[in-house]
Write a structure and sequence with these properties.
heterodimer; A: mainly beta; 7-stranded mixed sheet; 4-stranded antiparallel sheet; B: mainly beta; 6-stranded mixed sheet; 5-stranded antiparallel sheet; 11 strands; globular
């Protein structure tokens, strides 16, 4: 299994509070991604990174920001959480030598 | 505008028979395609891939077919087993751009009946 760790695994928070989710990899892969999974929508790309300090928006980036200060860490921040951001968040990685994505185990986020 | 579509939300198949899961895409620039399987409370796991230079790729019980002119791919599972019951996602990317920014479909829930 690819070395990907997401933290926390579960979080409950209140509307309007900031939330940061962390993705840590031990594979030294160049690309890192944040997806959210919702019923009826499948997996939707939020943001991705193609290197340290190099990030770009995905399909559903509004309300989210990301940072990548080290190869191994990719942070997803909800500056002011809303109930519509209740979802399961998955981090994924891929490298130059493969077209495959490897996923973490996910973070269940509930915004009340 | 959904670029990758899985029009069948669910599929039930008898054990030992063939399961066929379908996926359509609209972006003709997509040139890498992946299939993933997802169990509840777990991350998606990679199943099989195909690039646009091929029309078929096989790995054990799993075969993916790509029809570029129809912008359609399908995953065949033969024979189907109860452990194959899961949600299956197809994904597509413009790999030539070097980013592998994958767009996923909405998924098909497969139930294999014993």
């Amino acid at each position: 299994d690819a070395g990907i760790t997401q933290s926390p695994r579960h979080k409950v928070t209140e509307t309007g509070t900031p939330v940061t989710l962390r993705c840590h990899q031990t594979e030294n892969h160049r690309y890192m991604y944040w997806y959210r999974q919702d019923p009826g929508h499948g997996l939707r790309l939020i943001h991705y990174s193609y290197g340290v300090k190099d990030t770009d928006k995905g399909e559903v980036s509004d309300g989210y920001s990301v940072s990548r200060s080290k190869t191994e860490d990719f942070l997803l921040t909800l500056e002011s959480a809303t109930s519509s951001q209740t979802s399961v968040y998955f981090c994924a990685i891929s490298g130059l030598e493969t077209e495959k994505l490897f996923f973490g185990s996910g973070t269940q986020l509930s915004v009340l | 505008d959904q670029q990758v579509k899985q029009n069948s939300p669910s599929l039930s198949v008898q054990e030992g028979r063939i399961s066929i899961l379908n996926c359509d895409y609209t972006n003709s620039m997509f040139d890498y395609f992946l299939w993933y399987k997802k169990y509840p409370a777990e991350g998606p796991t990679f199943l099989i891939s195909i690039s646009s230079i091929k029309d078929k790729n096989e790995d054990g019980r799993f075969t993916v077919f790509l029809n570029k002119s129809a912008k359609h791919l399908s995953l065949h599972i033969v024979p189907s087993q109860p452990g194959d019951s899961a949600v299956y996602f197809c994904a597509a990317s413009e790999g030539a751009s070097g980013t592998y920014k994958y767009i996923f479909g909405t998924g098909t829930r497969l139930k294999v009946l014993a």
